[in-house]
Write a sequence for this structure.
């Protein structure tokens, strides 16, 4: 007989339970899906965690896919340095020398997912500038931003394209590839003005606000 | 270079380090370190969990469980298991990536029946 009830009423998950996968609809992805359906052999850069799903989705439709996990790359301990004020920072020059090594105007679509929110401050602007250069004129970039103070422990998700505007979200378990034990944490919450400033070199910007406190941003080079 | 043979495949063990061009007409299992190039036309390559390869690979089927830095050209199928760390481009007819695998590079699915199977660890 159970004498005591837990205060929350929530059940304790099994020790080896798989992390729960959530689904959401993405207006930004919906816009990109329309472009993918109308054109052939587009060049797509997926900057989230390796997703077999995404690779399958884009290659089945005849597009080229490049995959690069920028967030994982940013946890390399070799990037650690200090800024002019002596505060801890990451070496953006070294980061860009080892990542995003693509020729100019290569990609039709860049999928950032939510990495800008979790990327170290010292890398955000240099990375966005680099992404502008590797996008073709007229190319699209999709990024997700939290809309309110979510706290440093806000779950970081990897996104799997399920078709159309449907996404599956899987909580990220930081995989250590000998890159040290850095923890991925929400770095800050951008407001609209910050986002507009971040993407000021792009020709247009569209915001999609959703109920799960995510602000989707679709920009055009 | 001649690697020790078993009945099913040639094996490069954990403690073996090879620098140079590897070629052969049988399946190969690498659990050691290889730097150079690997040509196994019509045969299969497996990089074991302890394997560390810095080479472009040309084979019929390629399975990666360890580390590979180099391009993969697999005429039939390429697989990245969950412990794989693969950096380089992949050109193949069929590709399977297990959930947990790390991949950085381009994917080029080739052939008229360009079908890709991917297990996402669901």
């Amino acid at each position: 007989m159970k004498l005591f009830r837990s205060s929350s009423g929530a059940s304790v998950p099994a020790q080896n339970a798989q992390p729960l996968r959530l689904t959401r609809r993405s207006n930004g992805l919906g816009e990109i899906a329309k472009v993918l359906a109308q054109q052939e052999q587009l060049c797509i850069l997926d900057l989230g965690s390796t997703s077999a799903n995404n690779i399958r989705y884009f290659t089945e439709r005849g597009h080229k896919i490049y995959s690069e996990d920028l967030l994982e790359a940013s946890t390399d301990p070799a990037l650690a340095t200090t800024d002019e004020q002596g505060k801890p920072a990451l070496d953006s020059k070294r980061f860009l020398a080892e990542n995003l090594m693509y020729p100019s105007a290569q990609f039709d679509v860049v999928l950032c997912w939510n990495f800008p929110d979790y990327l170290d401050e010292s890398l955000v602007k240099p990375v966005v500038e680099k992404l502008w250069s590797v996008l073709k004129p007229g190319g699209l970039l999709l990024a997700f931003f939290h809309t309110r103070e979510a706290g440093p422990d806000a779950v970081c998700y990897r996104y799997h394209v399920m078709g159309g505007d449907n996404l599956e979200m899987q909580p990220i378990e930081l995989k250590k590839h000998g890159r040290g034990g850095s923890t991925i944490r929400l770095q800050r919450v951008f407001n609209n003005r910050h986002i507009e400033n971040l993407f000021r070199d792009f020709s247009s910007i569209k915001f999609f606000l959703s109920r799960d406190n995510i602000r989707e941003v679709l920009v055009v080079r | 270079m001649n690697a020790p043979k078993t009945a099913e495949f040639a094996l490069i063990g954990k403690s073996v380090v090879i620098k140079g061009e590897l070629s052969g007409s049988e399946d190969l299992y690498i659990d050691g370190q290889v730097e150079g190039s690997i040509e196994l036309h019509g045969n299969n390559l497996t990089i074991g969990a302890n394997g560390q390869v810095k080479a472009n690979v040309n084979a019929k089927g390629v399975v990666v469980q360890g580390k590979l830095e180099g391009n993969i050209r697999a005429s039939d199928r390429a697989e990245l298991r969950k412990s794989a760390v693969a950096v380089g481009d992949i050109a193949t007819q069929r590709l399977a990536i297990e959930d947990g695998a790390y991949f950085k590079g381009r994917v080029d699915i080739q052939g008229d029946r360009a079908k890709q199977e991917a297990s996402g660890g669901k």
Q: What stands out?
A: Chain A has a mean pLDDT of 85. Helices of chain A lie at 27-38, 52-60, 70-73, 92-98, 115-118, 121-134, 192-198. The domain at 26-220 of chain A is CATH 3.40.50.150 (Rossmann fold). Residues 121-134 of chain A form the longest helix (14 residues).
